[in-house]
Structure formats: C-alpha cells, structure tokens
Design brief:
2 helices
Length: 62
C-alpha cells in the first residue's frame, strides 16, 4: 500500500512541478511590460521635441 501512495504522490508532484504550459504567457507579459516601459520613458523626449516645433511655428507666425 505504501508504494501505491508513493507512486500517486510522485505522479501528482510531476504534474504540478513539471508543468510548463503557462511559461510562454509569462514571458510574453514580461516582454509587453518592458516595451511599455520603454515607450513611457521615450515619450518625454518626443513630447518636448514636438513642443519645441510648435513653439517655433508660433513664434514665426507672430
């Protein structure tokens, strides 16, 4: 009886700890988060450049 319980436990252990089905989803989520952070970090430079262009246009129109 003890070996039957051990084999059931080992099968359950293998099913839980060797399951890699959700691994791809986590990798994709981390990649999306990194891309989003890069976009947020780079938007400040783009925003200030656009602001400078419109300020120059405004100044030259006056």
């Amino acid at each position: 009886m003890k070996t039957l319980l051990q084999s059931v436990y080992l099968k359950a252990y293998d099913r839980v700890y060797n399951n890699e089905e959700g691994q791809d989803l986590v990798e994709y989520a981390l990649t999306i988060v990194l891309v989003a952070l890069a976009c947020v970090a780079g938007i400040n430079g783009v925003a200030s450049a656009i602001n400078n262009v419109f300020s120059n246009i405004s100044t030259s129109l006056q």
